[in-house]
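Q: Focus on the shape:
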Amino acid sequence: MEILNGLGWTLGAFILVIGIMIFVHELGHHLMAKYLGIKVNVFSLGFGPRLFGFEMGGTDYRVSLLPLGGYVKMAGEHYDDELRGTEDEFLSRPKKHRFAVAIAGPAMNIILAVLLLSINYMVGIQIPVYLTEAPVVGHIRSDSPAMEGGFQLGDRILSIDGQSVETWEELNIAVATRANQTLRFTVERAGDTLEIPVTVAEDPSTGAGYIGLSPTVTNVVSAVEPESPADAAGIQQGDEIVEIRLNGQSATDLARILDLIQASEGRPIELTLKRDGTLVEKTVAPVEMDGRHRLGVVIGELEPQERRTERYGVFGALAKSIEKNYQLTQLTFRIVGQLITGTTSMRAMSGPIEIARVSGEAASHG
């Protein structure tokens, strides 16, 4: 039942999102045609058989059976129509009028994107604080491209391939869109500037690039898997791993902790945990899951979990929306260019299935 409920949310949200996108697009064609005096025979919300509607101004405004979008039918729209040569026919109008009608649909989608994001910025958008902060390395994932490249904790990333990087958000976007490419990272370390070449790895599930860098992380357990070794040992969500010990070796930082868990090969390890200000000792034997030895806990969440609200007035929100949409448009064209040159994976682009999945997730969160 839960699966069916999830599918229902996803399908309903997908229909809503796609329906709004196509409806607004067709509305642009409709309004421009009406403005230029071109006759619109039908403006339909949905496809297929007509369910109900009304006629006004010579146009049949209808709701049709299939809710995925809609369409506009203009007089004299196709060359195989029975053309009379009257001024209200689409093909009888000058090219500039036909171009205006054609471009009005995409223009309305752009206006919708700017409008919706403007409203979001007026209401307030919550963003993680760290995304707007300088990209100073606080954690390096073991066995990652960044570890192999020689990054160190405290490195301040200045640029990538000569392009300045000011925030973690800019860094994440630059890396995510360049899977399988070798990038030159310019970093500042202890007052010196040096270059670190790193070949970006590709996430097999999404096609996005990653190198294994993040801001400061904590050793706090954010989740415990049921029936796992950690669960059996009584480790709880919120416990902080202070230290782990194995055969005389100890570790306190996350990268080294994960390395020791792997090195255990299933042998018991000793953990010192901090729980409500009190130190707690545990002994746990990791088990092999998905080819890696694990305790069955999620640790290493980003430390800067604080979020701040970006909120603007009407004109500030509009300016911010235009800026963000411009950045996203640039990013889209850049990815398309990389697809053409074969420097990025097709998985980097989202098709209808991905749109449905994301829409469903958004709807499930309200």
Summary: DSSP finds eight helices and 20 strands in the chain. The helical segments are 2-36, 95-123, 145-149, 168-176, 229-233, 254-263, 314-341, 352-364.
